[in-house]
Amino acid sequence: MTYVMSMRCSAQAGRTGLARRVVARLKNKVAIVTGAGSIGPGWGNGKAVAALFAREGAHVIAADRDIRAAEETAKIILDEGGLCTVVEVDVTNAASVAAMTKAVLDMHGRVDILHNNVGATGQLGGPIDVSEEDWDQTFTINAKSIYLTCNAILPAMLKAERGSIINVSSIAAIRYTGIPYVSYAASKAAVLQFTQSVALQYAAKGIRCNALLPGLIDTPMVHAQLTGHYGDKEGMLDRRNATSPTGKMGDAWDVAYAALYLASDEARYVNGTSLIVDGGLTAGIGPPA
Ligand SMILES: NC(=O)c1ccc[n+]([C@@H]2O[C@H](COP(=O)([O-])OP(=O)(O)OC[C@H]3O[C@@H](n4cnc5c(N)ncnc54)[C@H](O)[C@@H]3O)[C@@H](O)[C@H]2O)c1
Fold first, then answer.
1. pLDDT at position 7, please?
2. Whole-number Å distance between alpha carbons of 82 and 244
3. Residue 273: how many CA atoms within 13 Å on its side-chain side?
4. Residue 1 pLDDT grade (very low, low, confident, very high; cuts 50, 70, 90)
5. What is the distance, to the nearest Å, from the Cα of residue 204 to the centroid of all Cα atoms in its chain?
6. Per residue in 142-155, pLDDT tens?
7. pLDDT score recorded for residue 11
8. Residues within 6 Å of ligand 1 by CB
9. Residue nearest (by alpha carbon) to ligand 1 atom 19
């Protein structure tokens, strides 16, 4: 069952910084952000995207299977004077995605922005290490979920003759990162071609579809899922910082500002592209020989 909680805030006074802005970049847009909560304390990519979209005037649908995580994001947005509705959804489940879509369309009549953020690393290893079950699960959460949300939401976008879809992939889709996560890398690569197919099929119908490829980003997910590979947390942070050409990992806001551009009308002629947010990591060949 889909749980929907609508939370509107009438007070504009707390809309930090917006008073000085001439135009909010997503004014009056309805934006679904999947995985808008965070699996740990701090700012995950989806949480930062949701908060930033709201700061720029969007009515954000914070969609997450963890309702409490989504509510935390919604509270931040509402405290800032933004607009947010929380929807419980499992994006790997067609019925759940259909229920979310119906709830949003019943409420707003349209979806302007679909930000497909949900993703997971799956098991560490190559094809002889990961289980068939892990392969299937990782493809389901990273790739099938995006098919399901597009399957449900694209008809409404086509009817409105407008929409921006942003699919979160990873630099692991285009480079071997040195850490074998074969199901993650392959499923994130699938996201790229899915993105191009959608982008080109519907370009003349007012739909844009782009991929975001974060690099080494310091988010709660990294702390929760990757520490095992690096041995300990400090070692992980040191190595990930050292691997970045800037000497420091990116953070969720770096991803969020890139998503904001793709979501906004400023990117109206940007379609089918892969926007890499990695401090230049994939432009180089790695550490000096
Ligand atoms: N952090 C990095 O270094 C990095 C690098 C490349 C790509 N990425 C990508 O960024 C995205 C993750 O961003 P995040 O920091 O917001 O992640 P996160 O792990 O904090 O997850 C955000 C939310 O997704 C929700 N979620 C998980 N499965 C779900 C499901 N089936 N249905 C609905 N909600 C679900 C969780 O409950 C959580 O609240 C992923 O797609 C990931 O692959 C991250």
1. 47
2. 34
3. 14
4. very low
5. 25
6. 999 999 999 999 99
7. 36
8. 34-35, 37-39, 44-46, 64-66, 69, 89-92, 117-119, 141, 168, 170, 214, 216-217, 219-222
9. 221
| pTM for the whole structure | 0.93
Q: How far apart are CA 19 and CA 242, in angstroms?
A: 39
Q: What distance in angstroms lies between residue 280's CA and the mean position of ligand 1's atoms?
A: 22
**Residue 29 confidence (pLDDT) above 90:** yes
pLDDT digits (tens, 9 = 90+) for 82-114: 999 999 999 999 999 999 999 999 999 999 999
Helix (H, G, I), strand (E, B) or coil at 226: coil
Instruction: Count how many Cα atoms sit within 13 Å of the Cα of residue 97 in the half-sphere of its side chain.
Output: 22
Marked catalytic residue, from 184, 202, 257, 261 = 184
Mutation choice for ligand 1 from 2, 3, 39, 146, CB with most ligand atoms inside 8 A:
39
Provide CATH code, domain 26-276. Answer: 3.40.50.720
Q: Where are the domains of the chain?
A: 26-276
Residue located via tokens 């965070």? 38
Q: Strand 4-7 vs strand 83-88: parallel, antiparallel, or unpaired?
A: antiparallel
